[in-house]
């Protein structure tokens, strides 16, 4: 998605050798017009997959997931990282390691929001090592639901997440694929079809 790539070039900041900071439009301050276009892109790519539920992890995946759900006209469910008093014990859960925060999170979804009747599209902000996708897939399998595809806003192709997903055979579509960070600049690879 050329508009996203241009926005990353303009407003993204490379931190170290493997972190991209995009908090001015994606995961702290959110550009709703750009999110809407992302939702349209994901819808166009997966519209024939029979999706009836969008799944993500809080919190940075919520904005693109909601816009995608709006285009599909289906519910969006996000896995919670922190158990609250309103979240019962009737949960699907998985452990997910956060690459950027260097911590593990226990993610959970109430069983009443995911079932074997669901054909799910995962939407997430970043794909690096594939831990969030892996954790969500564990929950999807526990529910007996069908994972129809994975939509990623920004993929860091130089890390192992994409290769892991490709081996699984699950359809994946990334809006921006980064192949390297060179001298503080982002290098983009081929777009997904």
Summarize the structure.
The chain has 193 residues and is an alpha/beta fold. The protein contains 5 helices and 10 strands. Helix 2 crosses helix 3 (62-72).
List the keywords:
10 strands; alpha/beta; 193 residues; Rossmann fold; 5 helices; two-stranded antiparallel sheet
Q: What is the structural class?
A: alpha/beta
Number of strands: 10
Biggest sheet: strand arrangement: 4-3-7-8-9-10
Q: Which ranges are low-confidence, i.e. pLDDT below 50, for 5 or more consecutive residues?
A: none
Number of domains: 1
Describe the structure.
It contains five helices and ten strands, in the order αββαβαββββαβαββ. With 193 residues, the protein is of the alpha/beta class. The strands form three sheets. It has a six-stranded mixed beta sheet, sandwiched between helices. A two-stranded antiparallel sheet has the order 1-2. Strands 5-6 form a two-stranded antiparallel ribbon. Strand 8 (146-156), helix 5 (161-168) and strand 9 (172-182) form a beta-alpha-beta unit.
List the helices and strands and how they pair.
Blueprint: H1 2-11, E1 13-15, E2 19-21, H2 32-46, E3 53-57, H3 62-72, E4 76-79, E5 91-98, E6 103-110, E7 119-127, H4 131-143, E8 146-156, H5 161-168, E9 172-182, E10 185-188
Helix pairs in contact: 2-3
């Amino acid at each position: 998605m050329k508009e996203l790539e241009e926005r990353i070039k303009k407003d993204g900041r490379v931190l170290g050798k493997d972190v991209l900071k995009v908090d001015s439009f994606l995961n702290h301050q959110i550009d709703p017009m750009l999110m809407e276009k992302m939702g349209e892109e994901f819808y166009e790519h997966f519209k024939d997959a029979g999706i009836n539920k969008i799944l993500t992890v809080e919190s940075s995946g919520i904005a693109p997931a909601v816009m995608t759900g709006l285009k599909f006209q289906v519910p969006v469910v996000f896995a919670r990282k922190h158990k609250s008093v309103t979240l019962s014990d009737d949960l699907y859960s998985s452990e997910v390691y956060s690459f950027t925060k260097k911590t593990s999170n226990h993610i959970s979804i109430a069983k009443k929001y995911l079932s074997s009747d669901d054909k799910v599209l995962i939407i997430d902000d970043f794909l690096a090592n594939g831990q969030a996708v892996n954790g969500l897939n564990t929950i999807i399998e526990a529910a007996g639901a069908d994972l129809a595809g994975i939509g990623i806003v920004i993929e860091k192709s130089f890390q192992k997440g994409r290769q892991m997903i490709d081996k699984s055979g699950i359809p994946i579509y990334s809006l921006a694929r980064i192949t390297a960070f060179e001298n503080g600049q982002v290098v983009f690879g081929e777009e997904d079809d």
